[in-house]
Amino acid sequence: MLPISREKAIEILKSQNPEEFDLIHYRMSEAVMKEVANLLGEDTNYFGMLGLLHDVDWTLTKKEVSTHLTLAPEILESLGFDKEFIEIVLSHGYGFEALPELKNKVRTKKIEWALAASETLTGLIYAYALMRNKRVSDMQVKGLKKKFKDKAFAAGCDRDIILEIEKTGLTLDQLFEAGITGITKIKSEIGLE
Ligand SMILES: [Fe+2]
Fold first, then answer.
1. What distance in angstroms lies between residue 55's CA and the mean position of ligand 1's atoms?
2. Domain at 101, CATH number
3. Domain annotation covers residue 25
4. Does the pLDDT value for residue 148 go beyond 90?
5. 140 within domain boundaries
6. pLDDT at residue 176, rounded to an integer
7. How far is the CA of 122 from the centre of ligand 1 (A)?
């Protein structure tokens, strides 16, 4: 189902010389997506790969944000990913004003809502962990929820996108728990405790 291994995917991402935080973002997105896949009874490897590669052209396009996700299709196609995988990757950019090709599209599938919500939540968890002296392992859902409700905290994390998780049938609390669990599993690889 997947044309490349996760090791290969990481190798490709690293070969672009990404900023350290961007690589951390990809790793966190992978970790959260795997937990969400578990909750939904879906394929953890497939969900994980979507998390890992959802921003595959970010390093190459970040100088001109309006071009984000315009290179992703050809990169993913050349690696052997099918149209379905590519469209799910693109779907996390649906609705973004800055992306001309995608801004008028709307997510309609569970896997699309899961990806958008998961990758957006990583920013909130990471910011909260930094505030807690890098500790994520003893982070509580309740505390994370407070940060979610405090719109001024990590203001770049779009709360409405995180809320899309509810369209998959999961609750916000389930996503928060999955996020903390997933990111705790990789904490030592991303500089958290
Ligand atoms: Fe992302």
1. 5
2. 1.10.3210
3. yes
4. yes
5. yes
6. 98
7. 9
DSSP the chain: --SS-HHHHHHHHHHT---HHHHHHHHHHHHHHHHHHHHHT--HHHHHHHHHHTTTTHHHHTTSGGGTTTSHHHHHHHTT--HHHHHHHHHTTTT-TT-TTTTT----SHHHHHHHHHHHHHHHHHHHHHHTTT--TT--HHHHHHHHH-TTTTTTS-HHHHHGGGGGT--HHHHHHHHHHHHHHTGGGTT--
The per-residue pLDDT for 38 is 98
pTM score, two decimals?
0.98
Write out the residues surrounding ion ligand 1, Cβ under 5 A: 55, 119
Residue 50 covered by a domain: yes
User: For 68-98, what is each residue's pLDDT tens digit?
Assistant: 999 999 999 999 999 999 999 999 999 999 9
What percent of the chain lies above the pLDDT cut of 90? 99
- Cα of 13 from ligand 1 centre, angstroms: 13
Q: What is the pLDDT of residues 122-136, one digit of tens each?
A: 999 999 999 999 999
Which residue segment(s) compose the domain that 32 sits in? Answer: 6-189
Q: Is residue 1 part of a domain?
A: no
Provide the domain count of the chain.
Answer: 1
